[in-house]
Amino acid sequence: MTTIKQLSNFQDQSVTLKGWVYNSRSGKGLHFIELRDGSGLCQCIVSADEVSDSVFESAGTLKQESSLEITGKVVKDDRSVGGYELHATDLKVIQIAEDYPITPKDHGVEFLMNNRHLWLRSQRQWAAMQIRNTIQFTIHQFFQEEGFIQMDAPVFTGNAAEGTTTLFETDYFEEKAYLTQSGQLYAEAMAMAHGKVYTFGPTFRAEKSKTRRHLTEFWMIEPEMAFYDLDMNMELAEKMLKYIVEKVLEKHEAELKTLERDTTFLKNAVANPFIKISYTDAVEQLKSDKTANMLSQMFDDREKELAAIKKEMEEIKKEHGSAKKWRKAQIDQRIKDIHVRIDQIEEDLRNIPVWKKSAANFEWGNDFGGSDETILTMQYDTPVMVHRYPAEVKAFYMKRDPEDEKLALALDVLAPEGYGEIIGGSQREDSLEALKERIAEHDLPEEAFDWYLDLRKFGSVPHSGYGLGLERTVGWICGLNHVRETIPFPRMLGRLKP
Ligand code: 4AD
Ligand code: MG
Predict the structure, then answer these.
(1) Given Cys at both, which of 214, 223, 360, 489 links 198, Cβ 3.0 to 4.6 Å?
(2) CA-to-CA distance for 224 and 399, rounded, in angstroms?
(3) Are residues 136 and 265 in the same domain?
């Protein structure tokens, strides 16, 4: 058995592929089967002249997603997906599929999400999961090469790490336990044993917000390093992101194309140093005339674009009646695309005035909302590293800036193109007294943190770390507009099945 991905090694030879019918059509004396086998897509041509009558007949019965085994000659064909075709000599049906619910016609997102177990077979979903896998593998590669060891933090925890409002509570033999929000506190303990460690595991947040960036269960990668300050932490985060993006660009040209991903910003992220800006400067920028003007300009541009495509749509609709068949199909596709774009533009036109107002009225001391992050990153063409946030909006464990006690030595990395925060991190509070104060200020029970406080009693050192959200990273790199498509089976508010 060979896979489609390996076909280039078998030009003009006979191979056997096993897979599923992605698409099929029949012409005179010919069946065209677009086969998918998990490694790629391949056009298979079953010709009445080349196979027995019974094989030809059974090829004609194959409905979408039927499973089969097919043998034939590998023929180079540059117009074909993947560059090779299979000219069949034999074919065995494994199963004729029932009527497949996901057809090439457009389905609503709810329908697709309810059929997520099948939707995963579609090309775009397949491409995203292939890239997700590369990102995961690359992250391990990066940290292992940098001398980190992976550690697994517990999933059941006795304390909150990231605020008490998003905890999932469970009953742990009559004791309260929470599903972990972050492995960080445990990573800190392991960093004091191994120097440089990282977690790679599931984390849980009872997020009641229905946004395109929030899951209730997501995967986080949390490096933690002894003797690292905030600057070293930022340097590591940048190096890691560049490494990940570079590897995806190297391995996944075809998949990024399937996803129709414009890779300009990804290439910029590899080639250029990331923007580094303090929270205070970011606030100033948010409130500036420059930002207000940029948003007004954007609003005008969208209005103009909307008028232009509406006009185009009227014209091609008129043309449709008398058009040739191929042109009709072209027009239908264009009309579909225009509808999608109109929805996007109308959403922007609703949003921009709201964003503009919220940016102008932003007050120092608040946390950035999704739209503020979008606006900030719109002005740059690389990821933006925002550092030194007001301590009040950040977690209890963050070290204060010795130069300004109101600030925490925090770091957020915002992805470009409106994808928002993909990394949150900080230098950690390493003084026992200060940490006890913070725990009290945050109304956290000190007993739950006794072991964590021990780390500040026995050889406390400056240390830092961050958390990378895997799904948001996949979303940005793949250009997906919602995290639900970045994980095989997303868990969100109102979504537990499949
Ligand atoms: O900023 P967060 O909450 O930071 C922490 O949990 C720290 N303990 C990390 C550390 O310093 N070790 O989360 C880190 C990242 C975010 O930047 C985001 O990418 C992702 O985790 N994230 C989510 N992704 C999807 N859905 C959610 N509900 C998420 N919440 C956070
Ligand atoms: Mg955060």
Answers:
(1) 223
(2) 14
(3) yes
Nearest to 309, CA basis, from 280, 266, 341: 341
Buried b (16+ CB within 10 A) or exposed e, 165-186: ebbeeeeeeeeebbbbbbbbbb
Identify each DSSP E strand in 207-299 by its residue range: 217-226, 275-278
Domain boundary among 95, 127, 143: 95
> What is the Cα–Cα distance from 422 to 144, expressed in whole angstroms?
21
Closest CA relative to residue 390, chosen from 376, 405, 372: 405
**pLDDT over 80 (residue 174):** yes
Ligand sitting nearest the alpha carbon of 421? 1
List pLDDT tens digits, range 244-285.
999 999 999 999 999 999 999 999 999 999 999 999 999 999
Count the neighbouring beta carbons within 10 Å of the beta carbon of residue 209. 11
Same domain flag for 432 and 376: yes
Closest CA to 417 of 268, 248, 214, 304: 268
Model-level pTM?
0.94
Residues with CB under 5 A from ligand 2 (ion): 424
Residue 482 Cα distances to 55, 120, 165, 215, 478, angstroms: 44, 15, 23, 10, 11
- The CA distance from 218 to 202, in Å, is 6
Is 486 near ligand 1, meaning CB less than 6 Å away?
A: no
Tell me, yes or no, whether 159 lies in a domain. Answer: yes
Mean pLDDT value across residues 412-437: 96
- Same domain for 140 and 275, yes or no, is yes
